[in-house]
Amino acid sequence: MRKTFIAALLCLSTPVLHAQTEVEPFVPGSTLEGISYFLPRTAFRVTVVAEKTVTRPGDFNKYAERYLRLTDVPQAESTTWAIRSITMEPYGTPDRTKAYSIKVRSKTVAPLVGLSKSGLLLSINTDAQEVTLPELPKPQPAEPLEDPRNYMTQEMLSAGSTAKMAELCAQEIYDIRESRNALIRGEADNTPKDGAQLKLMLDQLDKQASVLESLFRGTTQTSTEVFTLTYDPSKESERDILFRFSRHLGVVDADDLAGEPVYVSVKSLESLPEPQPNEQVAKKKEKLEKGVYYNVPANMKLRIFTAQKTFLEMETPMGQFGTVEILSSMLFDKKATTRVTFFQTTGGTKDVME
Question: What is the pTM of this model?
């Protein structure tokens, strides 16, 4: 968070109580003294965790049914994707239509203003920590595959053809199965009496058989990938396309017709009244025009869904759908004791303390 004393260069004696700290709409390049700030609009970091499954055929897939009675084994490599989760995390981003400048007239007491790195108003006359988005989940790589040749016999490795190698490999698999059954029944010559040792031997035989069988039935590797995108709505919507998702390509752009659309809806949970002309309110607002602008956010409901499934529903306040109000400059010009903090994601008041 960046802190700024608006009147740091002023040498003051006793402040004049009727003088005011001026806050006015910001015009780039026109503010010579003071500090400029933005009110936020509420955007979202959308995080998609997707599972990627890669299936590859085994070297002996043509002989799977002949030697091991395996059917429907893969004959070609394929990749499939599935969405595991979608999350939305709100954050504040500067609203370029809500930029203001705090200027200090001479003989005033100026507030200590806390700004974020992007110029969002965080606090007045107190400290407020800038909030950052949490770390993204880590992608999970696929488990590495064992090399079947590490479990092949010398005879198998020296076979003169693929067909002969497949035949010898299948025979080795049957021999491993028989050894396993003999251990379980206690008929093997080297059956251990210790239960832990027996389990270790059975696990090793299972591993050998599985790795060799992968030469016939193929392999499947699963990993998770993490995709992020930004969603910054400016109006209510029933079903905007957030992104598209392909079973074969994963997350693709919203305009890529290779994927099926994933929608987002934004609806207000409040019924805001239409502003009515009121002479007294207009006069009161005119007196407050030199105060500090802040957002009064509106509560919104967001939903991410496809034609078949709803992935997320959430309710959250959003700055761009509410109204802008003003804190009187008199709160800060008398003795500068009023302390105010603001929500970074919405621009609404968090605490107001005398």
Answer: 0.81
